[in-house]
Design brief:
By secondary structure, the protein is of the alpha/beta class. The chain is about 55% helix and about 10% strand.
Length: about 725
């Protein structure tokens, strides 16, 4: 799930605000109680809200329900009475809905970023609750005076004639104090409402997807997805009504000038004693109908608007069930075999009919014969097929697509013909170096197009003509939008670490990039792991792809010895690491932690004990990260403490030891981490620190990869 936090811009939040505002002012057209109009939600909500408020505050309505209450209003006061307070209701829902939806997106992304992406899944309930509560607080600052105006109009028919006149009169007579008299009651009402609305909706989606088989999820129709969203919205709406209704009743009493004084807790307790349970939940029936329709329509419409804008909020509930999904896809592959619909295997570079200049570059790079993945994947890419290729980490995936792309280039065309996308800047820069080295004798032009570098320099180079772009999604899309990167001559788009590129965080950016390219662009996906989501998403963009997949049983790296140390408690890890550090001679090592905060803390502790270590994570400036990577590659830094940022494809040839100070929370990342310690068949050792709470995760990793991780022997120094 790394780097899956969406990087929303102010423009995106503006879109979310507008979408939320539109959702809050649009009706659920199947509402059986919206008799003649079936139009905008002010007509729906106002009518039901009028009846609900009358039931709460008018003794004449005692014991009535939604239908009988509606008939009573129409009979006594005429149909027009059902639209009392239309103005403040419409404006109130517009302002509050927009602020709430945009705020929820913002605060959720901020909390995920603060907690760390791995911890965010574990603490997703707290994140949902906190995001909804904070967003609602600020939205209620806009809603409170409008809600006070609406209730005054409903309860006192002769008070004023509309929003402006009623609002002005209340402000003139009572000032801000009167307009915000119900602010605390509104918070007590709306925060539980928002909690029910957002949190229950999130978990309904999660439960729905968890209950499905992999086959069902793959074949989920548009109607089924609509049904899940509708059902989740209806349940969330009912939950929101139940949670917030006592405070809603109190609010109606306060805005009528009735109700007890004192703190909110005291007011609610007094109201409960005086009115009883039935009085506290008076009008709940109409309100459940109203909120169920409103919330379900909001989420249906909001989701559709976000899809139109090619954006989506960060979904923690999706991350909860993806690991189980991975288990299904490749389980039918026989052990020690590659599953592929491409039979041709070429076991030497000379037989691949490569350009002489490219072949010279391949041999100059140090290759003697193609690896397993190179034997199978280079030719179909060269022949123009879409390809999904999976192989063990460190077996030459980068060279596979680099050779294929260089062979496909037309030297007479100076425009961009191929784009390689990578999830991190470091990986993109490394891939670019491989492309340059392999194409050293071809007179090709290439550019590393990543964030943290000069936009102006990139634009200048692109306008001069660059044949191969290696970059991160954000910068590449930016260059296309600016018109600096032209796609007229595009032949091939390659995604490295495709599982990461098509995860929730990058999927929208990848979609956007696809839509900017010619429809006949060839697509190649490469990754060490290929979960079901990637194979499913690939159907949207690939035409009858060649599939080269390996069984997960074979993914544990040959040549890497895996051990664990039982440290029992978290606080014992540091002393264990120091003992280990003094016991063995390390050529170069990577130490992985799950959070950036843990990286910084461990680095400080090791330095304070006079151990030479360096730290790298995503909060650092790009230039600082580049310097650290250069030092690590050259050997001037021997031990690097990092997050999963380094686990994706960074090739440091001399790494002989990987220490998982924290076991990865995402099982797919385990292979990426330990892959640092055995590149291209070299020997390496992976040591996992396991607390009592980690034992289940260790067994899960063993089962997931069909491998065995033994307790570390005393002679581990001889193995490194």
């Amino acid at each position: 799930m790394a780097s899956s936090i969406p990087d929303f811009s102010p423009k995106d939040y503006t879109s979310f605000f507008v979408a939320g505002a539109l959702c809050a002012t649009h009706s659920w057209r199947n509402d059986p109680y919206v008799a003649p109009t079936r139009r905008a939600v002010p007509l729906t909500v106002v009518a039901i809200d009028v009846v609900k408020t009358r039931i709460q505050i008018d003794p004449a309505f005692k014991g009535l329900g939604i239908l009988s209450g509606t008939r009573y209003v129409v009979t006594k006061e005429g149909p027009a009475a059902l639209l009392t307070g239309f103005g403040p209701t419409a404006v109130g829902y517009l302002a509050q809905g927009g602020a709430k939806f945009a705020g929820y997106e913002y605060w959720k992304s901020q909390m995920v970023r603060f907690a760390g992406e791995e911890n965010a899944v574990q603490y997703r309930t707290a994140i949902y609750l906190g995001s909804a509560s904070i967003a609602e607080f600020f939205a209620d600052i806009l809603l409170t005076p409008l809600e006070a105006t609406r209730i005054r109009l409903v309860s006192e028919r002769g008070y004023a004639t509309g929003l402006v006149s009623a609002f002005t009169r209340m402000a003139r007579e009572g000032g801000l104090r009167e307009l915000y008299a119900g602010f605390l009651p509104i918070l007590c009402k709306q925060i539980p409402y928002a909690v029910g609305q957002f949190t229950v909706n999130e978990f309904c989606h999660e439960l729905a997807f968890r209950s499905m088989s992999e086959e069902t999820k793959r074949n989920l129709s548009g109607g089924s997805k609509f049904g899940i969203s509708l059902g989740s919205g209806l349940i969330a709406g009912c939950a929101a009504a139940v949670l917030s209704h006592p405070a809603d009743t109190l609010l109606s009493q306060i805005n009528k000038g009735h109700g007890p004084d004192g703190s909110m807790v005291h007011r609610l307790s007094v109201l409960a004693r005086e009115a009883g349970f039935k009085g506290l939940f008076a009008g709940l029936g109409p309100r459940m109908v109203m909120t169920a329709g409103l919330v379900s329509s909001q989420f249906l419409m909001y989701g559709e608007i976000k899809r139109v804008h090619e954006r989506a909020s960060f979904s923690l509930s999706v991350a909860v069930h993806t690991d189980s999904d991975h288990r299904e896809e490749l389980k039918d592959v026989d052990a020690n075999e590659i599953e592929s619909n491409w039979d041709q295997v070429i076991d030497n570079f000379d037989a691949m009919d490569l350009k002489p200049e490219l072949l010279r570059g391949v041999y100059a790079y140090g290759f003697e014969r193609p690896s397993t993945i190179q034997q199978r994947a280079i030719l179909p890419v060269v022949k123009g097929h879409d390809v999904i290729a999976q192989a063990q980490s460190g077996t030459g995936k980068t060279a596979t697509f680099s050779i294929s792309i260089l062979q496909r280039l037309d030297g007479d065309i100076k425009g961009t013909q191929a784009i390689i996308l990578a999830p991190t800047r470091e990986l993109a820069l490394q891939i670019h170096k491989v492309v340059v080295a392999l194409g050293d004798y071809m007179n090709i032009t290439s550019l590393a197009c990543v964030g943290g570098t000069s936009v102006r320099d990139d634009m200048t180079k692109l306008r001069e003509g660059v044949q191969v772009i290696v970059g991160t999604p954000g910068r590449v899309i930016d260059m296309i939008k600016r018109g600096a990167l032209r796609t007229d001559n595009m032949k091939l788009l390659c995604l490295d670490e495709a599982d990461e590129m098509l995860s929730q965080g990058f999927k929208e950016a990848v979609y956007e990039c696809f839509q900017m390219l010619p429809s006949d662009t060839q697509v190649a996906l490469f990754s060490a792991t290929m979960p079901a989501e990637v194979l499913e998403v690939s159907k949207k963009f690939m035409r009858d792809p060649v599939r080269i997949l390996v069984k997960r049983d074979e993914l544990t790296l040959e040549g890497i010895k895996q051990f664990y140390i039982a440290v029992e408690k978290e606080e014992w890890k540091l002393d264990t690491l120091c003992d280990l550090y003094e016991t063995i001679t390390i050529t170069q090592a990577c130490i992985f932690c799950n959070t950036r905060r843990k990286v910084d803390m461990l680095t400080e502790q090791m330095l304070s004990r006079e151990f030479t270590v360096s730290a790298m994570h995503g909060d650092m400036e790009q230039k600082q990260r580049e310097v650290l990577m250069k030092e690590f590659r050259t050997g001037s830094t021997r031990v690097l403490i990092t997050t999963d940022l380094l686990a994706r494809g960074i090739d440091v040839q001399q790494v002989s030891l990987v220490i998982n100070y924290d076991l990865p929370t995402n099982r797919e990342n385990y292979i990426h981490r330990i892959g640092r310690g055995g590149r291209f068949g070299r020997k390496g050792v992976a040591i996992n620190f396991v607390t009592t709470n980690d034992v289940a995760m260790l067994r899960d990793i063993e089962q997931f990869y069909n491998t065995q991780i033994d307790e570390m022997p005393l002679n581990v120094a001889d193995l490194i």
